[in-house]
C-alpha cells in the first residue's frame, strides 16, 4: 500500500493516516423482535376489541328483536282481548234493547192500567197513537244508558261513507252513539260503556256491530 506524504509548513514530511472505511449502522436484533411483538399484541387487542363490539352489537340486536316479538305478542293478545270486550259490550246492549222490545206488549197493558187508575178512565186514543207514545217512552228508557263509539273525524267520515247502512242503523238507535274524538288514531274505534272502554281495530268493531245489528 502506498503511503502519501504530506509536507508541513515547517517542511517536515509526515505520513497521512488512511480514512476508516464507512460501515452500515447496526440494529439490535432484540429491539426488532420487541417491535414485532408489540405490533402483534396491538393487533390482537384491536381484534379482541372489535370482537367484543360485535358481540355487544349482536346482544343488543338480539334483545331488540326479542322485545319486538314480545311487544307484538302482547299487542296481539291485547287487541284480541279488547275486540272480545267490545263485542261483548255491543251484544249486551243489543240484548238489552231486545228485552225492551219483548216487554213492549206488557208495558202497554201496564201503562193503560195505570192511566185508568189515575184518571178513572182510559183515554180515547187511537191504538197507533198509544203505540207511538209507548215507543217513545221505551226509547227514552233505553237512552238512559248508552254505548258510545268514539273515533277520530277521519275515521268517522270513512265509516259513514264505507258503511252507510250500518252507520245509519247505529245513528237511529237511542242507546248507541257515535262520537268524534281527537285521542283515537285512524283505524281504531273505542267502545265505551258505563263500566269501562275497549279500544279495538276498525275491522273488529265493524264485524261485531254488523253481527249484532244485522
State the major sheet: 4 strands, mixed
**Residues in helix, %:** 55-70%
Write out the strand line-up for the largest beta sheet, numbering strands in chain order.
Answer: 4-3-5-6
From the alpha carbons, calculate the radius of gyration and give it in angstroms.
48 Å
What's a quick, concise take on this entry?
The protein is an alpha+beta fold. The protein is 64% helix and 13% strand.
Which helices and strands, and how do they pair?
Blueprint (H helix, E strand, L loop, with lengths): L4 E3 L5 E3 L13 H74 L1 H16 L7 H17 L3 E5 L1 H10 L1 H9 L3 E5 L7 E6 L2 E6 H12 L1
Parallel strand pairs: 3-4
Antiparallel strand pairs: 1-2, 3-5, 5-6
Helix pairs in contact: 1-6, 2-3, 4-5
Write up this protein:
The chain has 214 residues and is of the alpha+beta class. The chain has a domain at 50-99 and 145-213: Glutaredoxin (3-Layer(aba) Sandwich). It has six helices and six strands; from the N terminus they run E-E-H-H-H-E-H-H-E-E-E-H. The protein has helices spanning 29-102, 104-119, 127-143, 153-162, 164-172, 202-213, and strands at residues 5-7, 13-15, 147-151, 176-180, 188-193, 196-201. Strand 1 (5-7) and strand 2 (13-15) form a beta hairpin. The model has no long low-confidence stretch (mean pLDDT 75).
Structure keywords:
214 residues, Glutaredoxin, 13% strand, four-stranded mixed beta sheet, two-stranded antiparallel ribbon, alpha+beta, rod-shaped, 6 helices
